[in-house]
Amino acid sequence: MNRTRFFGCLFGLAVAVVTAIQASAVERASLEPLRVADNGRFFVTVSGRPFFWLGDTAWQLIHDLDEAEIRRYFADRQEKGFTVIQTVVLVELRSDRPNAFGHFPIEPRRPDRPIVKDGPNNDYWDDVERVLRLAEEHALYVGLLPTWGKNVTSNWQNGLVAGSYTVQNA
Q: 26: which of 96, 112, 135, 160 lies 20 to 30 Å off by Cα?
C-alpha cells in the first residue's frame, strides 16, 4: 500500500469515526450527524445545512486532562466558536502511564486486549465516553483518531512496514 492510499484510508477512518459517534448520539443530542455533501466537497448536517469545520487539536486530551480541565477547555473552545475538537484514543506520549483518571486503554502494546471493567467510570473506555458526552454538552463535534501512524507503520523511509498494531491484533 502506498503512502497516499494509506493516509487516504486513515483519513477516511477518522471521518467514519466522527460520523459514527455523532450518529450514535443523535437521540440524546442537539448536534446533528454530519455527512459529506452530495458534491463530495464539504460536510453538511443530515438536514443539508453546510458545516464549517473549525477544529482545535488536543491530541492528549483523553489521557492528560481530568474532568474539570476538560470542561474548562471545552467551554473556552465553544466560546471561541470552534466546532470540532480533534483528539486521539491511543496516545503517543506517556502511554506507559495511566490517564488522569488512573486508567490504561489496553494491555501494553496489545490493541487486541482492551482493559474493560464492569460498571460506569471504571475504565479508559468510560473515560472516552465521558469526553464525548462533555463535548456534546458544549455543542462540539469530536474528530477522533484511533491511534498514531507509527503504531501501524514503523519505517517511513523505505516504504510502509508493519508497526506494533497489525490487522491480526487490531
A: 112
